[in-house]
Design brief:
Largest interface: A-B, 22 and 31 residues
Shape of chain A: elongated
Strand order of the largest sheet of chain A: 2-1-3-4
Radius of gyration of chain B: 23 Å
CATH topology of the largest domain in chain B: Rossmann fold
Structural class of chain B: alpha/beta
CATH superfamily of the largest domain in chain B: P-loop containing nucleotide triphosphate hydrolases
Helix content of chain A: 55-70%
Helix content of chain B: 25-40%
Oligomer: heterodimer
Strand content of chain B: 25-35%
Shape of chain B: globular
Number of helices of chain B: 9
């Protein structure tokens, strides 16, 4: 036990002092936070401007109503968001009108152009032409306006009271709220949820990759300098392995501690909504256990590696596995009951990150939390045992990289 | 006292150590010699309990070596290296702590040895700031810091200049006077010859010869003389007493038949040539090594 502490202390103190660690400690959260906050700043800060929209309506009956409908959208300075101009010149045919509109869009004279087909009839439909087809906000508003006009016209035709028409047009607004434990309700929007989950996953990933690399690098140093022989003529491989894992975990805890301080100060500075820390206890558990799991994995794999390049390869693969939740983040947020997400929650390699994500986007049942945590803890024990076996032989095998077959034989030994 | 009985270590299909038996007596240096790949390191690793032998037993003071012996064993591996970015004193204290030394003892022992090897000024420097020779001194200190009962040194002299070699030699000898058991594995035959009383020469994992160095020399071929003379060495061919000779720049080493008395042979020589030097020589360990390994490799 004394020797385990000695190894852990050495691994911790010698690594905490390194420049790489200190830099990762400060730089990582800065990078991640700027990456996650900047886009939302850009979204909100898009300079508002008056948009000129062309209209091709050969019947000429929509322009006034449409203008009326769209006038409800105002810019912060009180100006109207949309200005409609009629492009339906009488002396041109429909096709010519459309190509003129296209030209104007190309020349940036107008933002876009609404083309109405079968105007005045029940089967009216429209297309919106613009330089980009990504502007869901505009299209949504046009759709709403046109539908409302169509409905109003129909109702007027049928001789219905304008009051009722007005009533028809009044919409019920649906606000999205996320229900959480203890009857709490949070109103964080999609973007915040998304970025909060991603931040934790990225932090875990960065941490695992950084410290994993540090660990593997120091093991390569010990192997190539044959220091390892002095070490294992002083302590058992198990003591060495346990000490290394503990040292590395302490390193991780230091990072978590300092990052928490940063997180708290960000909340205090209200850069991050406090709701992001609602599930902080289980999240910390997943974080720490996930880190332990990967640390023990790294110790085993690291002992088979002889060069920096090989080490880099392995850390890259592992970090890709860790990144997996980012890929499934979108569908999971939209539909938390997705089977894939559930399955990944129970695979130890992805449990920590997927659960970090799920805790953020849905309320996970306590049973599931306990179950996944248990799986994680059990796998940490198994991985440590297997790693110890690989470690015992791996640290003494120099030269060529062992094959999978050889490693399996080591495990069986 | 360390006893190794019929040690066998097999890696898959290769037999690295094939039935080795030897005894290392305390207060004497035991030389483990052999060409590269002979099985020296594997033998050392099994003694150190780093790897388990396939069969055979290793006893230290009549008890099998277990992990508890770690704290009384000191080991200097052949290839050198330390934590480059760490401070000398930190590294030494770390290794001492792995040998169960408490911190204050570790510090005082470190300072003692750093002073003795004249590198105390580097105590708080990073390892990478030290010269290669001084780095090796630090590693040697790391191996002996805990005052081990059994000291295993694998090529302790490589990389040292003659002055430092002398210091290391003195250090090893000082351990000897305290009655410790020392195994020295080396290629440097001249040093092994000066330091070791018992040797074990191995090749292909097997014993080639073992025992007291003086006995080995006696058995190896007793009748050797060294000559220095003016003139051509062709005349040597006319003597039926000569088995073979090696001509060097300044002298010629000659092996004569066992029944020939060297002084009688000297008389014969004086009649033929002008002699500058004549001496009866023992075969060097170097020569024994080369001859035996050549012979051994030839038969395998």
């Amino acid at each position: 036990m004394k020797k385990i502490i000695a190894v852990a202390k050495w691994e911790y103190i010698e690594k905490v002092k390194t420049k790489a660690f200190i830099i990762s400690l400060i730089i990582t959260p800065i990078i991640i936070i700027s990456f996650s906050i900047l886009p939302s700043i850009f979204f909100n800060e898009e300079p508002p401007k008056v948009e000129i929209i062309g209209l091709i309506d050969t019947s000429g009956i929509y322009i006034n109503d449409l203008e009326n409908e769209l006038s409800q959208y105002k810019l912060p300075d009180g100006q109207r968001n949309y200005v409609l101009i009629d492009l339906s010149f009488k002396y041109k045919n429909f096709e010519e009108l459309k190509s003129t509109a296209n030209e104007n869009i190309q020349k940036n004279l107008i933002e876009g152009c609404l083309v109405l087909y079968n105007p005045g009839s029940d089967s009216v439909y429209a297309e919106y032409r613009s330089r980009s087809i990504g502007n869901f906000k505009n299209v949504g508003r046009f759709e709403e306006a046109l539908s409302s006009i169509k409905l109003k016209k129909k109702l007027e035709q049928e001789g219905i009271d304008t009051k009722i028409i007005k009533y028809f047009q009044d919409k019920v607004v649906v606000e999205q709220l996320k229900v959480e434990k203890g009857d709490k309700v949070s109103d964080q929007d999609f973007l915040t949820t998304f970025f909060m989950s991603i931040i934790f996953i990225l932090l875990l990933m960065m941490m695992v990759v950084y410290s994993g690399q540090m660990l593997v690098r120091s093991m390569i140093e010990e192997k190539s300098s044959r220091l390892i022989e002095m070490l294992i003529s002083s302590s058992t491989p198990d003591e060495l392995l346990t000490g290394k894992i503990i040292g590395l975990s302490l390193l991780g805890l230091t990072q978590i501690f300092i990052w928490s301080l940063i997180g708290i100060s960000l909340v205090a500075g209200s850069l991050i909504p406090p709701s992001a820390f609602n599930n902080i206890l289980p999240m910390l558990l997943y974080f720490i256990l996930g880190f332990l799991f990967y640390s023990s994995l790294f110790v085993g794999i690291g002992s088979t590696v002889n060069t920096e390049q090989e080490a880099q390869q392995i850390t890259t693969y592992l970090s890709l596995v860790l990144m997996l939740p980012v890929v499934i983040a979108m569908p999971s947020i939209q539909n938390p009951d997705l089977l894939v997400t559930k399955i990944f929650s129970y695979i130890p390699l992805t449990t920590p990150t997927v659960m970090l994500l799920r805790l953020n986007v849905e309320s996970v049942s306590e049973l599931e939390i306990i179950l996944t945590l248990s799986i994680l803890i059990i796998s940490i024990f198994i991985v440590t045992k297997v790693s110890a076996k690989i470690f015992r032989i791996g640290i003494l095998s120099y030269g060529s990289k062992p094959t999978i077959k050889e490693i399996i034989r080591w495990i069986k030994e | 006292m360390l006893t190794v009985n019929s040690l066998v270590k097999r890696f898959n299909s290769t037999l690295a150590v094939d039935n080795l038996s030897f005894t290392v007596k305390p207060g004497k240096i035991f030389g483990l010699i052999g060409p590269n790949g002979a099985g020296k390191t594997t033998t050392i690793r099994t003694i150190l309990n780093i790897i388990k032998p396939t069969s055979g037993e290793i006893l230290f003071n009549n008890n099998p070596i277990t992990y508890e012996y770690y704290n009384i064993i000191g080991y200097l591996p052949e290839e050198r290296g330390l934590y480059k970015r760490s401070r000398v004193i930190d590294v030494l204290v770390y290794f001492a702590s792995l040998k169960n030394l408490n911190k204050s003892d570790a510090l005082s022992h470190s300072d003692f040895w750093l002073k003795k090897l004249k590198i105390l000024e580097y105590r708080d420097k990073k390892i990478e700031q030290l010269s290669k020779g001084n780095q090796q001194k630090v590693q040697l200190i790391a191996a002996i810091l805990h005052n081990p009962q059994l000291l295993i040194l694998d090529e302790p002299f490589t990389g040292f200049d003659p002055i430092n070699q002398q210091e290391v030699k003195d250090l090893i000898l000082s351990f000897l006077s305290e009655g410790k058991t020392i195994i020295l594995s080396t290629h440097q035959m001249d040093l092994a010859e000066k330091l070791c009383e018992d040797i074990l020469l191995i090749n292909y994992g097997k014993t080639v010869c073992s025992g007291k160095l003086s006995d080995i020399k006696k058995n190896f071929g007793g009748n050797n003389i060294r000559l220095a003379f003016t003139g051509d060495n062709d005349f040597l061919n006319q003597f039926p007493e000569i088995i073979k000779y090696d001509h060097y720049h300044n002298f010629t080493d000659i092996q004569i038949k066992d029944e020939v008395i060297p002084s009688e042979f000297l008389k014969k020589l004086i009649e033929k040539i002008e002699l500058n030097h004549f001496s009866i020589i023992e075969p060097t360990l170097n020569k024994i090594f080369i001859d035996l390994i050549k012979e051994n490799s030839g038969t395998v």
